[in-house]
Amino acid sequence: MMRINLLPHREIKRKRQQKEFFAMLGTVVALGVVVWFAVHLYLSGRLEDQQGRNKYLEDQIALLDKQIEEIKKLKDQVAALLQRKKVVEALQANRNQTVLLLDQLVRQLPDGIYLKSVQQKGAVVNITGYTQSSARVSTFMRNLESSPYLENPNLIEIRGTTDQSRRVNEFSLSVQLTRPKEEEPDSGKKPSPLKTGAVNAK
Questions:
Q1: 60-182+197-202 adopts what CATH topology?
Q2: pLDDT tens digits for 143-159?
Q3: Residue 103: how many CA atoms within 13 Å on its side-chain side?
Q4: What predicted TM-score, i.e. pTM, was given to this entire model?
Q5: Residue boundaries of the structural domains of the chain
């Protein structure tokens, strides 16, 4: 019976299998390295792009912050200018109020009444004067009530006194300045211009 030694054949097969295994292992490792490198490059690119976008956003935010600060400064300047405008308008209105007040006092002052002093504190005007009779004071108050620039006359005091050896009544009243009363829409008339006058005082 013939015997065949298979050991060399098995050894050759085993070495071939080892070579194939290491070759496959090298291929897998190389493929893994390639995949890892490709993923690394992709993620690095994405990271750089995101960092670039973040930098752009930060620059734009800083620019917007500067613009907001400039807008805030402009708003502060506008508010300051408006405040100055209000002060100028208030001064102008106060100057006109004095003229209107004197004009209205001259217009509404009846005969037999002489004003001693006129003091204005804001919208309230305090008036003191002399009259021959208390009825003339009532007429004066009615005239003030009918004025388009004066309202709410209030008699504070009236008492007998002597002025230059004459027996007279000294009175004190207050009245409020107001805006002109608007005429009826269908009247078609405009308020007549006011004329300034002098207040009789004694």
A1: Gyrase A; domain 2 (3.30.1360)
A2: 888 888 888 899 888 88
A3: 15
A4: 0.45
A5: 60-182+197-202
